[in-house]
Write a structure and sequence with these properties.
155 residues; 16% strand
């Protein structure tokens, strides 16, 4: 049985980890291990520990960078750390960041966080169990959390 790791932060203003657990339970038969860390820059080592120490096959890392310039820098550092952890473990870590300034209102932000978390949980399922579905979606302009933009067409 596949094991999916979920790591989220206390800094986020929405519980994306619970949303991911709900979506995984609805759509896959897999063991899940969840951990929570204080902030976004803690995600890389927590993800790596889930992969190496807990035997996860894949991890979904959830974070919410703030809107300040420093938060954007921290998000970039965390993203680079997640990429490095993937390369070190040869396993996927699906980064799910929702920046605080991606939405105009708190209600819209909460909706975006839930939708993006659910859609990436489905991507985790596809990576593990249905990789041919991802091939079918290649070049289709998928956008997690927002409306898909569709493929480009040559005239």
């Amino acid at each position: 049985m596949a094991t999916i790791g979920i790591v989220d932060t206390t800094f986020a203003r929405f519980d994306m980890g619970s949303v991911v657990l709900d979506e995984l339970k609805k759509n896959a038969s897999a063991k899940t291990i969840r951990t929570t860390v204080p902030g976004i820059k803690d995600l890389p080592v927590a993800s790596k520990k889930l992969l190496e120490d807990q035997g996860c096959d894949i991890v979904i890392a959830l974070g919410m960078p703030g809107s300040a310039e420093n938060d954007k820098v921290c998000a970039n550092q965390a993203s680079l750390g997640l990429i490095q952890a993937q390369l070190m473990t040869n396993k996927h870590i699906i980064e799910v960041f929702v920046h605080e300034n991606e939405a105009a209102s708190e209600k819209e932000l909460a909706r975006l966080m839930e939708k993006r978390a659910r859609e990436h949980a489905l991507n985790v399922i596809k990576l593990l169990f249905k990789p041919k579905e991802l091939i079918k979606e290649a070049g289709t302009g998928q956008r997690q959390g927002f409306e898909d933009v569709g493929p480009l067409r040559m005239k």
